[in-house]
Design a protein that fits this description.
about 30% helix, alpha+beta, 2 helices, about 130 residues, seven-stranded antiparallel β-sheet
Length: about 130
């Protein structure tokens, strides 16, 4: 089993139903042998993960340019009971940047009066 990359940004590649890969640079915080990713619940990557859990993860820069080899992984959604632990991992990894982003997202969600979950937390484990 290959370890998942640890860097400020990782390129998370999810797959469409047709098998076409879609790479997105994301923040990913280590949580044991897994990585946790915080993203909008209505994002494309969340929709793609609902039909296939296969992903690849590679270290990258903020623009998504790969900085190392990709690692195959499996993704799932963090259940509500485990969200506090995953959020704590993201706060440890990103500090004030995560806190400001989360507060801003919470405020926007309230102002726009959107229904449902604001964000999903994805856990990625190596294959």
């Amino acid at each position: 089993m290959t370890a998942l990359p640890r860097s400020e940004y990782v390129s998370l590649t999810t797959f469409r139903r047709t098998g076409v890969p879609v790479a997105t640079p994301v923040w990913a915080a280590p949580d044991g042998d897994a990585l946790v990713v915080w993203t909008r619940a209505d994002s494309g990557k969340v929709k793609r993960l609902r039909h296939t859990t296969r992903v690849t993860v590679a270290p990258c820069d903020v623009r998504g340019r790969a900085r190392g080899p990709a690692v195959e992984g499996t993704a799932d959604f963090v259940p509500d009971a485990e969200r506090p632990r995953a959020l704590a991992a993201l706060r440890r990894a990103y500090g004030w940047k995560f806190t400001v982003g989360d507060a801003t997202a919470r405020l926007a969600h309230r102002l726009l009066r959107r229904a449902g979950d604001r964000h999903a937390i994805i856990r990625i484990r190596p294959r």
